[in-house]
Amino acid sequence: MTYRAPISEIEFLLAHVLDFKQLSRTAPYSEVTIDTARAVLSEIGRLAEQVLYPLNRTGDLHPATIENGVVRTSPGFREAYRALAQGGWVGINADPEYGGMGLSLTLLAGLADMAAGANMALALNPMLTQGQIEALQNHASDEIKALYLPKLVSGVWTGTMDLTEPQAGSDLGALRTAAQENGDGTWRISGQKIFITWGDHDVAENICHMVLARVPDAPVGTRGISLFLVPKYLPDANGNPGRANTLQAVSLEHKVGIHGSPTALMEFDGATGWMIGEANSGMTAMFTMMNNARLSVGMQAVGTADAARQKATAYARDRKQGETPVSDGCGGIIDHADVRRMLLTMKTRVFAARALCLDTAISLDMAKATGDQAWAERGAFLTPLAKAFGTDSACEVADLGMQVHGGMGYIEETGAAQYLRDLRITRIYEGTNGIQAMDLVSRKLADGGAAARALLAEVADTISRLEQVDPDLALAMNCELEAMNRTTDWMTDQSDLNDRFAGAVEYLRAFALTLGGHYLARAALADPDNGDRMALLSFFVRHEMSQIAGLCSAAGSGAAMLYSLDTDGLLT
Q: By CB neighbour count within 10 A (0-12 exposed, 13-18 middle, 19+ buried), where does 353 fall?
């Protein structure tokens, strides 16, 4: 079985479900039409299928290695990365002033989808670079931009994000990496960073680390964090890699998955760096990079889940076990009801999560193009949903993919297990999904629920249109929407933040499922002659959206019951 890039599905979503054409009515994206999208997606899809996918299993079986401080990547990864960079895809949405294509974040999301579906471990490399480009464009000095951005945009240099330390994971306020001023505009950076994705490698000529550190006398917590650009090789007078900086990859992690992605423990020993933005405001600049990465992680997870779905569906078609109840079926296990249930769950969940991620990207593009605060708030609200629901769904889809394979799914040679192993990290990095949910019910509802209710109003409008076609389905959707509205009211009225946190994960899942039904309904309404679209909507409403009422009940139950069993009770 080979990977098939979902070009037509992404194009259908953009053209008929998410109103992508509104971007082309803005000045910055006047040339980003659906025809442009089709051409771009076709080229990316070709690269994914022909260049990246053939190396997916290779990266899993032959991980990156480190010997005497030198990191060697998986066979073929260097050449595949260069093909991606030479195509201009690293800089797909970067400013043309620095060599970028100047296309939309939405098309970058399409790239993330297909690149990861073909080879997630390799796709992580440009993802981090793209996030760094975004941060530098928004926060770096003109001198830094002029020197670093053309190199990063072209893919000749790559970027990393260096946040985590042994004692500072989700609590970045606890980090200890220190920065001392040199007096010449540079800083000496000292400390350790762990879990650095593509922290060292041999696929590009330089690696630029974005490092969080503390300057002397900085305030405690996150208010005292600054951001520094620290290259592996210091640029010479001509802007080319010069002498080695005083940093190194001490070791590579032995991970459950994404073996082809070198995850490094980085040591900075008085390394030379340049401050990005103002002192003690590093979190602002880093969050520019992290928000970009959170959407990309959601989109990458969706793409990888789709690859798992494709593999499972092909296996189910060809694998024959027992008599099936379908007289005109193909005879494979795909004709058994339970297998059909799993495959439909996988297909509808991938569709819903992909639509959610693309909707987020379009919102952020529209905010950038128009300066409209409503678009910015919409995109901000959708971002934790895209990251958490995208990655949760992807892991669940990959798990179902293994189940469809039966015993063969537990055998590595089939490749089904790799998708689950690779995907599991996506629920953890770039902010765990629990943190995404807490962000949703705190910061993202801080507007009194305005952004949430605006989205729910869009769902209500879709349901009213569906009522003209299928009143029963519309009624079922409306019942779940009412539960969602009541729970949103509870969340916004609840002053105890911990009570909101206690039900945050369930609230996020319920909201995402509500939007998933909305996207599937819009797809069915846009393509009325295609019975498959209505069949997928019917399944999603009955099997997935039916969970919303229960999730809402849990979301509004408060924190007391979580603490009714004390620590000793948990330990025994």
A: buried
